Amino acid sequence: MAEPTTFQPVIIGFLCNWCSYRAADLAGTARTHYAPTMRPIRVMCTARVEPEFVLKALRSGADGVLIAGCHPGECHYVEGNIKALRRFLLLKRMLTQFGIEPQRVQLVWAAASEGHQLAAAVDRMTEELRALGPLHWQQTVLRAKVDIPLIKLEVGG
Amino acid sequence: MSNDQIPPPHASPDEERVGVYVCHCGSNIARTIAVEDVALWSEQQEHVVVARDYKFMCSSLGQELIEQDIQAKGLSRIVVAACSPHMHERTFRGACQRAGLNPYLFEMANIRELTSWATDDREAATSKAKAQVKGAIERAVLQEPLEPLFVDINPNTLVVGGGIAGLTAALELADSGYHVYLVDRDSSIGGQMAKLDKTFPTLDCAACILTPKMVDAANHPNITLMTWSEVVAVDGFVGNFSVQVRHKPRYVIEDLCTGCGTCIEKCPSRVLDQHFEVGLGYHKAIDRNFPQAVPKYPVIDTTHCTYFQRGKCRACQVVCPTNAIDFTQKETFEQLEVGNIILATGYEQFDARRVPQYGYGRLANVFTSMEFERMVNAAGPTSGQVVLRDGVTAPQSVGIIHCVGSRDKNYNEYCSRACCMAALKFAHLVHERVPDAEVYNFYIDIRAAGKHYEEFYHRVLEEGTHFIRGRVAEVTDAARGPGEEGSLIIQAEDTLIGKQRRIPVDMVILMVGMEARHDSRNVASTFGLGCDFEGWFTERHAKLDPVVTMTEGILIAGACQGPKAIPESVAQGSAAAARVSGLIGRRTIKLEPVRASIEAAACSGCRICNNVCPYHAIVFHEEIKISEVITALCQGCGACVAACPSAAITGAHFTREQVLSQIDGLLWDMQPGVLVLA
Ligand SMILES: Cc1cc2nc3c(=O)[nH]c(=O)nc-3n(C[C@H](O)[C@H](O)[C@H](O)COP(=O)(O)OP(=O)(O)OC[C@H]3O[C@@H](n4cnc5c(N)ncnc54)[C@H](O)[C@@H]3O)c2cc1C
Ligand code: SF4
Ligand code: SF4
Ligand code: FES
Q1: Which atom of ligand 4 lies closest to the CA of A16?
Q2: Strand bridging mode B438-443 / B596-598
Q3: Cβ separation A76–B671 shorter than 8 A
Q4: B292-306 b/e with 16+ CB inside 10 Å = b?
Q5: What is the CATH number of the domain that holds A90?
Q6: Ligand 2 atom 6 nearest Cα
């Protein structure tokens, strides 16, 4: 299905309080313009991001999820970002089974001084999602014939 | 619910009464976002009782608006759409509190930094702002009132590292009347500064300003000095740390030793001193770093002691007039209780052998900067004479190479800050000691940013030092002509005249950079703080909070936080001491309530969270097979919350329900599975 090029994807962005949220603040302060596609959620650390949060966002209509945290070795909680990375890799494997393209969920590192990099990551992801078109959660996941109840999609939500 | 009543905190989300305040921020937000429209729209949203837009929400008038509405309209949740929470979260929490609303029943939507400043697309920015506000509302209605945590503070402080930074911190705290344990793993305090001769830019002798402080620390009634000791374990939390210190055996009984030095004199084993003299001088198998070492007690270097190696000698034991030598000493452990910890573990030097083209270790007359410091030091191995490796010949020409291992993508990208100035100091000292020697400084840029630093640079320029701008390609002894015979040739591109140059010299000094201590990552993990990529300890905020770390009660000072010279190290030592004494003065400390807690009934006892927590804040109760968070230890990262397979852990202020609800709000205009076009 060819999507019109005006398609504006919607991204839920989980930004860690110490690095990437500050990077986003810095991008703004420096008036670095980027696609207004990312709707932000501040978390204390990327380690707080549960797979359920990502699934919930995709299920509720987001076209992609961006998780941004401190560079390895710079997490303010020692290595929360490494835990997030491990969890993220597992989650990606599961999402592939669902038939969800890997570009839809991304993990990036952006230090507090890297406003530009964070903005660029949002722009890049927006372009990639634009090329993919909207995520039709129900159709995509149903087509994938995965036993959905196996996954705790409904935890707390 | 009547309007003049503040609702009870645990009302169901449906009963919450939300006030939304949209800030223009002058024109910073209003230029790109239709703020009036956002406010009008907000007023239509579920839970919202009142929505307003205002020029400057953070002004006192803006804050009063919130306070009045809370009281007049019985608001139970506040949402402010304005700048970053890092800017004004505290401001608006204060307004809530003044009006009698728990400050954690407040949520901020950052529509300035994250939205109005990040795009020019008014329509898209306005719709993103609405989504952010909606997300904030949906999160706020599930928020719960939280109370800060109060813990008592033990007034004793541990300072780790007795270099100039740690000494300064220890002395200032001790002078304020608080007890300090000063632990250094070396046999003497003083750190790197104790090796230096004169210090830039004033050229006062390092020993003259350092040794009095060392002696003060040793004699201070409020300081317990523990050298030749290391911290092996840290438990507890701010105000109440429990620290285990390992005292390595000196083989000298401190209570008996008078520091007379007879043992050192009579010890037959003389070995190259790689540590304090950086390989330029010798020490005995029983010795101290330098004659003015504090404390004065020597230490036996067992790898070179004839008795330890071959079972006989005992010369020191025989000559000691007070019977202070004890070959049977074992390491001992001591437990300390302290309220705060200051880490001042300093730096190490870049290993010059890592740049093989500069020939260190291969070409005899290539020296490191620290070797040169020892050489010019009147108390050092050459008694202050500037001589070649043969120990007698004065060099007629000296090449000083800046930035060795620093500002170089192959090694360390950062600038080591102190080496340019030290290089200028060396140029001056060569002129002083060998008056007719030629001195060449090879530099990339001269970094002389500091009080009286630039003036010092000019002084050295006037002394006739040659400055050649460009990175040195090679130091070699392969002569190309008679003029180069027997010399070290420094090959560099002089970027100011755009020409390759070969300068023959007798002596080369490599200004090696500063690096984090080789074990800084282990030390960081013992104390539960972060390190950056290069191993420097991470401060809470690079600009606004440089001596405090993310772990409450653990502070950092001096070069362990990043390369710095003595004045900044001292400033940080004082700053850390001031922070600690401020805390102690308050007796109790207020902690952010953003922390995890485990619901015992839901915990399956799997212990997954126990290992996830970087602060060892989760204990397992073996008897009842249930985990528990020690609230004061928890720093609120939320890692355990996400990891618990039984969903037994709640992260206050970032609960699962709150985040999921915020997601719903943020995606209010999206429909699952339905094609949405912009
Ligand atoms: C060649 C050279 C010349 C210099 N000249 C000047 C100058 O002229 N003027 C100037 O302002 N600056 C100069 N500097 C910089 C100066 O050396 C530093 O700024 C200063 O020494 C930093 O002090 P510090 O206390 O932070 O660290 P350090 O001096 O490194 O002290 C750290 C202390 O902590 C101890 N320690 C380390 N790890 C542990 C541990 N795990 N447990 C217990 N104890 C530990 C060490 O034994 C040491 O005693 C020069 C540097 C170099 C390399
Ligand atoms: S991870 Fe959850 S269930 Fe397992 S021990 Fe910790 S709190 Fe209990
Ligand atoms: S949130 Fe959990 S993992 Fe993080 S510090 Fe607190 S107890 Fe430890
Ligand atoms: S605090 Fe940024 S990723 Fe952990």
Answers
A1: 2
A2: unpaired
A3: no
A4: bbbbbbbbbbeebbe
A5: 3.40.50
A6: B609
- Characterize B568-589 residue by residue with b for buried, 16 or more Cβ atoms within 10 angstroms of its Cβ, and e for exposed: bbbbbbbbbbebbbebbeeeeb
Judge whether A43 lies within some domain.
yes
CATH number of B602-651: 3.30.70.20
Which chain A residues in 89-108 lie under 8 Å from chain B, judged by CB atoms? Answer: none
Give pLDDT, residue B19: 98
Nearest Cα residue to atom 4 of ligand 3: B637
Number of domains in chain A: 1
Structure tokens at A2: 């060819």
For residue A157, list chain B residues with Cβ-Cβ distance below 8 A. Answer: 656-657, 660
Secondary structure of B238-256 in the HEC alphabet? CCEEEEEEEECCCCECCCC
Nearest CA to B600 out of B636, B628, B633 is that of B628
Distance CA B521, CA B200 (A): 31
Query: What value does the mean pLDDT take over residues B500-513?
Result: 97
Q: Hey, are the CB atoms on A136 and B673 less than 8 Å from each other? A: yes
Check if B533 contacts A (Cβ < 8 Å).
yes
> Class of the B1-147+652-678 domain?
alpha beta
In a domain, A157, yes or no: no
For residue B164, give the ligand 1 atom closest to its CA.
25
Determine whether the interchain pair A36/B119 forms a contact, defined as Cβ–Cβ distance below 8 Å: yes
Interchain contact A5–B (C-beta under 8 A): no
Residues of B in contact with A78 (CB under 8 A): 524-525, 528-530, 614
Mean pLDDT of B312-335: 97
CA separation for the pair B547, B343 (Å, rounded): 10
Residue of B669, B655, B668 lying closest to B107 (CA atoms): B655
pLDDT of amino acid B642: 95
Pick the CATH number of B348-515 from 3.50.50.60, 3.40.630.10, 2.70.40.10, 3.40.1190.10: 3.50.50.60
Q: pLDDT tens, B621-649?
A: 999 999 999 998 898 999 999 999 999 99
Ligand 1 geometric centre to CA of B260 (Å): 28
Q: Which residues pair with B607 in a beta bridge?
A: none
> What pLDDT shows up at residue B573?
98
CB contact under 8 A, A47 and B84: no
Range of the structural domain that residue A92 is part of: 11-152
Q: Which residues neighbour B278 within 8 Å (Cβ) at sequence distance 6 or greater?
A: B195, B368, B370, B371, B374
Structure tokens at B515: 């690096």
Residue spans of the domains in chain B: they are 1-147+652-678, 262-319, 348-515, 602-651
CA distances from B479 to B76, B356, B438, B509, B659 (A): 84, 18, 19, 19, 71
Residue A157 amino acid letter: G
d(CA B266, CA B268): 6
The amino acid present at B283, given as its one-letter code, is: H
Closest of B507, B355, B532 to residue B440, by C-alpha: B507
| Nearest CB neighbour to B672, from listed A27, A60, A75 | A60
Per-residue pLDDT tens digits for B83-114: 999 889 999 999 999 999 999 999 999 999 99
pLDDT of residue B550: 76
Q: Which region, left, alpha or beta, applies to residue B301 given φ > 0 means left and ψ of -120 to 50 means alpha?
A: beta
User: pTM (2 decimals)?
Assistant: 0.75
Tens of pLDDT, residues B137-171: 999 999 999 998 888 999 999 999 999 999 999 99
